[in-house]
Amino acid sequence: MPGLVAIFAPRHWALLVSVCGLGWAFWLALNAGGGWLWLVAFFGFFSALGVYDLVQTRHAVLRNYPILAHLRFLLEEMRPEIRQYFFESETDGAPFSRDRRALVYQRAKMQLDKRPFGTHLATYSDGYEWLLHSFAPRPQADPDFRVKIGGPDCAKPYSASVFNISAMSFGALSANAIRALNGGAKAGGFAHDTGEGSLSPYHEEQGGDIIWEIGSGYFGCRTLDGAFCAEKFAATAQKPQIRMIEIKLSQGAKPGHGGVLPAAKVTPEIAGIRGVPLGKDCVSPAAHSAFSTPLELIAFLARLRELSGGKPVGIKFCLGQPGEFLALVKAMLELGTAPDFLVVDGKEGGTGAAPEEFMDHMGTPLREGLSFVHNALVGAGLRDRIRIGCSGKITTAFDIARAMALGADWCNSARGFMFAVGCIQSLACHTDSCPTGVATQDPLRGRALVVPDKIARVANYHRATLHCLAELVAAAGLDHPGAFTLDQFRRRVSETRVASFSNLYPSLEPGEFFRGARDPDLRALWEGASSKSFGVSRG
């Protein structure tokens, strides 16, 4: 029985001490008189508590750290009072950033997410943002907002939720975490991105809609030497559960970096799923080998669409050199075909492990990247045929509304759904010692995550977030979040000055590139971009 085997893990020392103490207390009570019964009761209480912690299904951290983890919950109970006393006096005026993890937990557990006494944010501090409401709010629409993804070359378009699970691979996450995420997607009617670790049996067994992400390692569709294999791709891509295919050029937390899963962590199971040799490092190169120019990339996407049977095919990337993206746009125009979708990943997005310099300073933040990509497609007359998704620290309905005003058709979230399955941000993702069984390949730690309980929480979080989004949409006088405009959002840029998003993020007119962009820098970038090469222009 896994629960009994887990008792002997070193992290269960408090339970072991309690059980040993109970045996010692019984011996004393039997041999030294009844005066030691209080000790039996003491150790008996903690022994019973520890055993209960191991078998209960509500809290993964208690299953991994019986008895000890109660200290964490005690500190959580004390936190509001400590915070109020030390950080929220009426005179200091210090801005307070609300704990979004706590909000996700409340929604995932279907707890009350309302609170008293106004905003905790400092409304007169630089950076505060808000959405303008209407004096004529609309009746609340059905919160199951959908977007159709698939251009004119797509035979099997997909009707996607506007809020989906962002890319997280099996191998980075445990089998139970993948089961819970995909089961929640199935229950809630939204999509689950596999991450570049490929499609695993744990994605398939729950039956939720899948976005298959393919990175530079071509895991699940590669030859033994790491090249793309069309036959393996077609065999997987045509599975009904896979609804879209996403080619990852880069991710926000470490764009242009690539990655290595050391040989010691390449288990037989991971080797089989990814199609890599056992006993060797599993390498994700920084660049793809199947294409090297914008024209080759667009042609590769068209080939994947054909091999998949006509499913939507797109690209995920963190925006880097803007001229390189414009070169890609020119390739679309030249070949007369385009991706069905683009996913813009902000550099603020997360990862299990990346160099600090990459996480802090490499790549374009989501808002700037999303605005540029949206406007580039508008300026080239392609926006109507290409859908745009986005990801990067999106956890709340306001985050979704703001992103859609900036040009997104839908949003993906990784950390929000990780919180929903129990992540407590212990920052141990890269150590294989995740305390909640989310980011680990240790089967004893992974057993702490109880799949049916977390499936419900994933679906609850999605449903509650979209319900709140529907409330924002109605309050703004709209019927769908796709109708949000930049004019409806404001940001305080100083204590005495407020700016509209329409001024902070200037827009291009449809086809403006062909008439000459008004911005001379943008016009020069467009003129210097070449469909035949990445990296010709720098801007």
What is the fold's blueprint, element by element?
Layout: H1 2-6, H2 13-32, H3 37-55, H4 60-64, H5 70-87, H6 100-108, E1 129-131, E2 146-149, E3 158-161, E4 163-165, H7 175-188, E5 191-193, H8 201-204, E6 209-214, H9 230-237, E7 242-248, E8 259-261, H10 268-274, E9 282-284, H11 294-307, E10 313-317, H12 322-335, E11 341-345, H13 356-361, H14 366-379, E12 387-391, H15 397-406, E13 410-413, H16 415-420, H17 443-446, H18 451-475, E14 489-494, E15 497-500, H19 501-504, H20 512-515, H21 520-528
Roughly how much helix do the residues carry, as a percent range?
40-55%
Corresponding CATH superfamily of the largest domain:
Aldolase class I
The third-level CATH topology of the largest domain is TIM Barrel
Strand order of the largest sheet: 4-13-12-11-10-7-6-5
Evaluate the radius of gyration.
26 Å
Number of helices, counting only DSSP H or I runs of 4 residues or more: 21
Strand content: 5-15%
* Number of discrete domains: 2
End-to-end C-alpha gap: 60 Å
Shape: globular
Kindly provide the name of the CATH class of the largest domain. Alpha Beta
Helix-and-strand structural type: alpha/beta
The count of strands amounts to 15
Average pLDDT level = 88
Major beta sheet, specifics?
8 strands, parallel
Uncertain runs are: 1-7, 81-98
- So, CATH architecture of the largest domain? Alpha-Beta Barrel
Pfam families: Glu_synthase
Family: Belongs to the glutamate synthase family.
InterPro entries: Aldolase_TIM, GltB, Glu_synthdom, YerD
Protein name: FMN-binding glutamate synthase family protein
